[in-house]
Amino acid sequence: MIWDVAIIGAGPAGMMAAARAAERGKRSLLIEKNREPGAKILLSGGSRCNLAPADGPCGVVEAFGPAGRFLHSALAAFGPRQAVEMFEAEGVPTKVEPNGKIFPASDRAADVRAALMRRVKRAGCVLAPAEPLLDVKRNETTGVFQLTTADRMIESANLVLATGGRSYPSCGTTGDGYRWAAALGHRVVPPRAALVPITSHAAWVTALQGVTLPDVAVEVVDPSEAESPPLAAGRGAMLFAHFGVSGPVVLNVSHAVSGHGRPASLLLRCNLLPAMKEPEFDALLARELAAPGRRRAGTLLDRWLPHRVGLTLLELADVSPEAPLGEFSKARRRRLAQLVRRLDVPVSGTMGFRKAEVTAGGIPLDEVDSRSMRSRIVPNLYFAGELLDLNGPEGGYNFMAAFCTGRLAGDSV
Hints:
Blueprint: E1 2-8, H1 12-23, E2 28-31, H2 39-47, E3 52-53, H3 57-63, H4 72-77, H5 80-89, E4 94-96, E5 101-104, H6 109-123, E6 126-128, E7 133-138, E8 145-149, E9 153-161, H7 176-183, E10 189-194, E11 198-199, H8 203-206, E12 212-221, E13 232-240, E14 244-246, H9 248-258, E15 267-271, H10 278-290, H11 307-316, H12 330-341, E16 343-346, E17 349-350, E18 358-362, E19 368-369, E20 374-375, E21 381-383, H13 397-412
Parallel strand pairs: 1-2, 1-9, 2-6, 9-21
Antiparallel strand pairs: 3-5, 4-5, 7-8, 8-9, 10-18, 11-14, 11-17, 12-13, 12-15, 13-14, 15-16, 19-20
């Protein structure tokens, strides 16, 4: 038997492609190496699954930067509104949190996975779990794809590669799709970790473990390229940890670190009070120093920052926390103000694919027709999801890209 379409990978993109193809009457086979589909869905969003952003299609495109244009057709057919409608039709009501993230109302990622699986099964798609592929070839004479497992040869007229990248390899995403795409004739942009915590060996950084700053503006900078713009920039919450730093703003700029040839040469430059203009903060600091009373330096910054952060900044400014505020020189005040607005965290690297939420790199977008997800290189080959060289910020954007590209691939086979 030759299947109309075989879909490799039962993640969000693969399940969307499989369900849509089967709904259109295609004899569809969804092949998954794990015993259970959607393993990565269960880990996402702290096991709550941030399934989409509340943005409209244009907002999603913008979030992906220049590469976002690739998603225009896919999002026009299936955007965040359609995703919400689909899950609610499957019995999974959703909610929009104040930060613009859409979650299942139950806060259960398992409900998202179950909804996708119900759709796959109802459409009549055949699921082949626990069946890792050993090889993928295309018969040049017949054009049929030949997929080899430990037990059988599977033949299919069309093939959708939705294997994911290399993030969270414990879920089975070990980069198999890159190898098969390359063997079929595609280039592969070297994969690298994205949405991943950044590591630092600086003692003062790790000593702040557990401290969260709700609003920080950060830039990834290369000190040897002082005149160049930052490699990445963002604003949001940052968390100090035993390994370095994490939190949404750190994850969103981490691709610039993992993609750099010398990550240990980089700095994460932090403005700890981005909502305040520099002259305003300097004036407030001067006023605080001039206030009457026998106060000590140790509590000087407590009005704006967590106490432990304030003590760390004093240490970096070479100011004793016991120093009387009345003895604070203008030079010391300026140095402290500079640290608040330009605190450089020395970078050693990232936590790699093991802790990365998504993968940057993959199949070059210019080798895929964005109107169909069809390969421009290999007839009847399609791509969807994280395997593409397309990665966005945290906030449900990458799930949305997986859903819409998977849906479009299933509509096109």
